[in-house]
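Exercise 3.2. Students should predict the tertiary structure of the chain below and write it as structure tokens, then compare their answer with the key that follows.

Predict this chain's 3D structure.
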Amino acid sequence: MSRITNTFESIHGRGALVAYITAGDPSLEATERLVPQIAAAGADIIELGLPFSDPLLDGTAIQVSAQRALEAGTTPDGVFATVARLRAGGLETPIVLMTCTNLVMRPGFENFAAKCRESGVDGVIVTDLPPEEAGEWKAAADANGVDTIFLLAPTSTNERIEAAAAMATGFIYCVSRAGVTGVQQTVPPELHALLDKIRKHTDTPIAVGFGISTAEHVKTVWQWADGAVVGSAIVNAIAAGEDIPAFITNLRPDLSGN
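Answer key:
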């Protein structure tokens, strides 16, 4: 059983908090310091975004954070080395990389998957790789014990939902609304129907991201899904120099009382 699957099973009765940060923002040393703090403060799974100069689904906050990370010299190999040091230091919280096909194809699917296994990365979200074209990556990931997490959105067809549900391991990442990442004021009410639609095809946990930024949002999502992903709000908090452990704890409604 993968770390991700074990985590969802071990927190049965509440949802998971998935915390996204951009790896290398403002430096890989900061990432190495922040990840254990974020885990200890209440994040069940941590997503590390691999910074890339040509963003696909990233809103302004994450685009700017990726630029800071690139200017600090962050590379995929540097991120793998950071994860390896975190594992050597005893971190057990699942780590998921969020990236694009370009960064996975550059070293080759098998080589990238092997680096995930060797460093201690548990799963990968390749944001622009649809399940219909993911066979080669999926085979490499499976061979290395790495979970393949697909994105589904309000615009996903029934065929796409069926294909993703059949291939996904770890969890399915449900995008709450059309568009790019970014802090929003509310959770869209139509999200519930989308989750019901996906749930008809799979028992794999479903986590919801894009626009989830407060404990109230997390509480709403947990009513309908297995996990909530908070990204831009944490990235903004890091940029503002806020107390990140306190910020993470305040996102968990069961810990903060919100």
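Discussion points: The first helix runs from residue 3 to 10. DSSP finds 13 helices and nine strands in the chain.
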